[in-house]
Write a structure and sequence with these properties.
It contains 15 helices and 17 strands. The strands form five sheets. Strands 14-13-12-15-16-17 form a six-stranded parallel β-sheet, with helices on both faces. The protein starts with a strand and ends with a helix. The N terminus and C terminus are likely disordered.
C-alpha cells in the first residue's frame, strides 16, 4: 500500500512554486511496501516541524484522508488532480494522508494486457481493501477525488466522506443511454456497482453544472448526497510562452517548418469526435486564413482509417502527431497555435479549453455543455457534427480573434488553485462538524 503523510507550513509559497515539494517512495516487496511518512523538505519553505507563521496558526486544521488512484491505472489527469489537492491542503496547514492501492500483482504483468487488467482489478478491489482492515485511521474527513473509487467508502465507515464527481458518462452508458459506447455485460455490472457506492457519498462536489445536472437526472431522489459545484483548477501553471523559447521547442517537435497550425489534444475515445476533427480540418484549409495550416495532434495518435482519410483528401502531409509530451512542450504548442480545435461530443469538464486559454490560444469548441460553461465568453462555439457550419462560424469570428483570446485569458483566471482548495476546505469543515456532532450526541 502506497502512503504519504504530509504536514507543511508553507504560507510564503504558492502552490505552483511547490509543485514538486514531495516524493512518494513506494517499493512493493511481496506483501509489504516501504512507506514515506515524515514531513518532507521543500526549497524556500518551512516544514511544520518549525515554528508556524501567524497566518498558519490561524488555520482550523482538519485531518484529511485521501484515496488516490491505482498507480498502473494510467489515469494521469486524476492522479494530477489528487496530487494538486494534497499539495494545496498541506500548504494551507492541514494534515493529509494519501493512500493509493499498490500494484502488488499488477507489477508482474503488462498493465494494458488482458491479464494485467485482471490482476489490477484484484489489486484494487481485493488486496487493497484487505490491507485496510488491519489499520485504524484518525481522520476528520475521507476524500475520494475520483468518483470511480467510491467503492472504498465501505472501508471507512464512521468517517464523513466527500467524493468528487467528474463525469457520469460511464453510468449513462451502463444504462444504454449512449449508443456510441455500448458496454459488455461485465462492464455494465461493474459500472452499476460503482454507481451504487457513489449514491452513498455524503458530499458529492461536481466539476461543472453540466455534471451535476446529469447526476440529478440520472439518480434523482435515489441519492442522499449533498451536491455542489467546485470548479477544478489547472494542474500545471500554463501561461503564454515567450516566442523564442516556444520556437526552440517547436523546432524539436515539428521540425523547421514554421507554417501555422491547428492544434488538437485528446484520445481516440468516441466522444472526442476525432472523425469530426479531421473533417473540420479538411474544410477549414479551403479558406484563405488557413490555406497553409498544419494539423498538430498531441496525445493518442489518429487511428489508421482517419490518417488514410486525410491522405485521400490531399491533407496527409499536413498531419503532425507528437504523441504524449511534457507540459512545457504542450505549453509551447498552446502558445503558438493559430487555433485549438476541441470538437468533443461529451465531456465532464474539458480541461484543454482552459489550458489553451491560459496560454493565450484561440479556442474553438463544441456548442454544448459543459464546453460552453468552461469556455465562457473567451471561445468560439461550433457545431461539432457539421463541419461546414463549424468552419463558417470560425471564419466569421476570425476577425475578432484577438479580443476572444484576451477574454479567454481572463476566463482561465476564474479557475484558480487557491479558490478550488478554499472550496474544498469549506466542505471538509462542514463534513467534520457532522462527525463532531455525532460524537456529542452519542455521549
Amino acid at each position: 500500500m502506497e502512503q504519504l503523510y504530509v504536514v507543511l507550513d508553507a504560507s510564503d509559497c504558492s502552490i505552483f512554486q511547490s509543485l514538486h515539494f514531495y516524493t512518494i517512495v513506494a517499493r512493493t516487496m511481496r506483501s509489504s511496501a516501504y512507506v514515506a511518512r515524515e514531513p518532507l523538505r521543500i526549497p524556500q519553505c518551512r516544514t511544520a516541524m518549525q515554528k508556524p507563521s501567524s497566518r498558519a496558526r490561524g488555520i482550523q486544521r482538519v485531518k484529511i484522508l485521501i484515496i488516490g488512484n491505482y498507480a498502473l491505472s494510467n489515469n494521469q489527469s486524476m492522479m494530477r488532480f489528487t496530487d494538486l489537492l494534497v499539495r494545496g491542503l498541506a500548504i494551507r496547514g492541514h494534515r493529509v494522508e494519501l493512500l493509493r492501492p499498490a500494484p502488488v500483482l499488477g507489477r508482474l504483468f503488462v498493465a494494458d494486457s488482458r491479464i494485467g487488467k485482471f490482476v489490477g482489478t484484484v489489486d484494487r478491489f481485493v488486496l487493497f481493501p484487505l490491507s485496510l482492515r488491519f489499520r485504524t485511521f484518525d481522520a476528520d474527513v475521507l476524500h475520494i477525488p475520483d468518483h470511480g473509487n467510491a467503492v472504498y467508502i465501505a472501508q471507512f465507515r464512521g468517517i464523513p466522506n466527500v467524493v468528487t464527481c467528474h463525469d457520469v458518462q460511464p453510468y449513462r452508458s451502463a444504462r444504454g443511454e449512449i449508443g456510441e459506447n455500448r458496454l459488455g455485460v461485465f462492464s455494465r455490472i461493474y459500472q452499476h456497482w460503482v454507481l451504487s457506492w457513489i449514491k452513498r457519498a455524503q458530499y458529492l462536489p461536481c466539476v461543472s453544472e453540466a455534471t451535476i445536472t446529469e447526476w440529478e437526472r440520472l439518480v434523482g431522489p435515489a441519492s442522499m448526497s449533498q451536491t455542489s459545484v467546485i470548479d477544478p483548477a489547472l494542474t500545471y501553471p500554463y501561461a503564454p510562452m515567450l516566442k523564442d523559447e516556444a520556437s526552440l521547442r517547436l523546432c524539436r517537435l515539428l521540425g523547421e517548418d514554421d507554417s501555422p497550425f491547428v492544434l488538437h489534444i485528446g484520445s481516440n475515445a468516441w466522444y472526442k469526435n476525432r472523425q469530426g476533427l479531421v473533417k473540420i480540418f479538411d474544410e477549414i484549409v479551403k479558406h484563405e486564413e488557413f490555406r497553409n495550416a498544419r494539423l498538430v495532434i498531441a496525445g493518442k495518435r489518429l487511428p489508421p482509417e482517419l490518417r488514410n482519410w486525410l491522405a485521400a483528401n490531399g491533407n496527409g502531409s499536413r498531419l503532425h502527431e507528437v504523441g504524449a509530451i511534457e507540459d512545457e512542450d504542450l505549453r509551447a504548442l498552446y502558445s503558438s497555435a493559430s487555433l485549438l480545435l476541441f470538437p468533443s461530443l461529451l465531456e465532464g469538464f474539458g480541461m484543454p479549453i482552459l489550458e489553451a486559454q491560459a496560454c493565450g490560444c484561440l479556442v474553438a469548441t463544441s456548442d454544448r455543455s459543459p464546453m460552453r460553461e468552461v469556455g465562457g465568453d473567451g471561445a468560439i462555439f461550433i457545431d461539432p457534427l457539421n463541419p461546414i457550419a463549424a468552419v463558417a462560424t470560425i471564419i466569421e469570428q476570425w476577425p475578432q480573434r484577438e479580443s476572444i483570446r484576451a477574454r479567454g485569458l481572463l476566463n482561465a483566471k476564474r479557475y484558480e488553485v487557491d479558490t478550488m482548495i478554499s472550496r474544498y476546505i469549506e466542505l471538509y469543515g462542514e463534513a467534520s462538524r457532522t462527525k463532531n456532532l455525532g460524537r456529542a450526541q452519542s455521549q
